[in-house]
């Protein structure tokens, strides 16, 4: 009675604490846990003698020293719960009690793990923790438990997130750091929710001791090594220090062949799995001991980066795996899934991979790695050349690649030079080998249309432990160029540079009647009633701004659309019209993004919101050759109709209407600003539709489509380019009278900088550009603020 009273009082005091706590012990399992567990070999046939002997063996066999410090008792240690609900051990199996056993384990310098289940009963039919979580956690703490494997049997109608969270909180409350190993078999995708709950989570059902089989137990199945491995696909991004994918415990030494054991162990290391042994340590073969104590292999698993490896390819039954390691190293593993020995010609550059998760690249072309064969424990040359490898059936080859020599571009962001500056390319070669390295570094300079202009070559000797800088000074005419740098190992880097871009000359080639052509189009447009219609999008609107879906009529009676965002508060606001890219999906501006502005994203004919009713095919070749009917005649008029709309709004301060857009939207921005003086400042980026003749020489698209169509139509070059000249934004740029800012990506292979500048250089009004040296068909994140600042700086108070 007395005891019960105390317990109730204790529990009452616990309650507020329970709510306030709620976390796991974050400092544990920073690398995947290592240890030994009873289940795989002994199942329910366990007792304190076995555990004590195993503790002794973990130490005497050097396993503890290799990292296996958790000694875990799995299911079937339990007896009954006492009258108060506290759990007891099975008295026959554990006559000295669990506390004494824990003490024994700790006295060996090991840590002690135990097992329970989130349901009413464990998988072995013994008492589970359901409803007893806090009590059990207190008991474990009293016993000195350091690790809890928490199973998922008999949990019908139980929410897994809740169940595992309760036990996590109970453990935290009990105050003794316990590694929490979630054993939910992957049924409810624990990788999506368990990161803050446990230190690892099982990703699959139970492992069976076979290489590639499925063992059917009737109501459930267990899986061989390869079956489990294949189920790890797509999960690597969820794992990391303190939260690991657990493909289940090891079966090494339990009956597979030595090759299979080695492959199993290696693959578990490659995927940063917890390494929990499950064999009989008293009857272990030398080969088994050798496998599980190979410290260099274990180090792959325990690497501090904590990034799971990935499959980098497969061929003819072989799989190639890479795992990024700390210090710029990699693990490279070849797994032979088949039963026969395989020989393979390994060319390193075939495995040139950039791993998005770690942000690391193997870069075999510009880095030299020393190869260490971890299973033979020998140094095995370098990656300077390919090699023939042989992998036995159901076996692996495991290399660690240590970077020892590298060439890298040292220009940083300096890839564009202005008049008066001296262009150069700088390569740093770094040698951390014990001997000097001779290298020839070559640089090829090509025009942006891929004509080889010059080659440079430099022979260098890089002393051991040193860096050598190779600088290639370049003499350039205004323009954009391609650079290819190669070293003795292969390609170092391929990239674009530029010099004095504002001096690039692409003379206008407009026909004398171009003004007339566009004036006529504008007159035609003016004759079309716009029929603006607005529909409020309630769900997307906020307290600050309303979002509307807008429709209107444009040239030829064509319906066009857009999303409008206007401030809720009455007033006059500056307005931005955004023109869309080629094939862009529709979007509307963040309602709370620029609350003091009217913003309108226009979908012109057949694009964006209009794409479902697109009748213009791929747009760019629609009625090519016929300037009166060409797609872009109508599309350019849509830009003006969009301005008609925005200027008709009571909220728009028409002194401050700005235009912007990227790619096709960049070209539209320039075209609209040239054709309509209601735009007061413009921010095109990576603009399209210019300087066609040169454009088609520099990059394949859209020239390929246009030139095919040209042939089909039997148009001469003269006819083609004459017609296109009406739609070349460089010819329209001459009419712009307002400030312009242009953003461009130096590595753009869609709308290359040459064509961006063809138009830009002909703009007669105030202008500036922003170069993003490493961007392709894109701008940097700071562009959005830059262009907004530009608009704000160009705000007018009167129409002067
Ligand atoms: C489940 C687990 C196994 C083992 C047994 C014990 O099957 O997945 O790892 O713990 O229960 O009954």
How is this structure best described in words?
This protein is of the alpha/beta class. 25% of the residues lie in helices and 28% in strands. It has 20 helices and 38 strands. It has a nine-stranded mixed sheet, sandwiched between helices. The longest helix has 19 residues, at 2-20. Bound molecules: alpha-D-galactopyranose (GLA). Alpha-D-galactopyranose (GLA) is lined by residues 39, 74-75, 122-124, 151, 183, 206.
Features of the shown structure:
single chain; alpha/beta; 9-stranded mixed beta sheet; 25% helix; disordered N terminus; binds alpha-D-galactopyranose
In short:
The chain has 800 residues and is α/β, with parallel strands linked by helices. Helix content is 25%, strand content 28%.
Determine the N-to-C terminus distance.
93 Å
Based on secondary structure, the structural category is alpha/beta
- Largest sheet descriptor: 9 strands, mixed
Proportion of residues in extended strands: 25-35%
Roughly how much helix do the residues carry, as a percent range?
A: 25-40%
Spatial arrangement of strands, main beta sheet: 30-31-32-34-33-35-36-37-38
Unreliable spans: 1-20
Q: Mean pLDDT across all residues, rounded?
A: 96
- Strands, count: 38
Q: Which term fits the overall shape?
A: globular
Gyration radius from CA atoms, angstroms:
35 Å
Number of helical runs? 20
Question: What are the distinct ligands in this entry?
Answer: alpha-D-galactopyranose
Oligomer: single chain
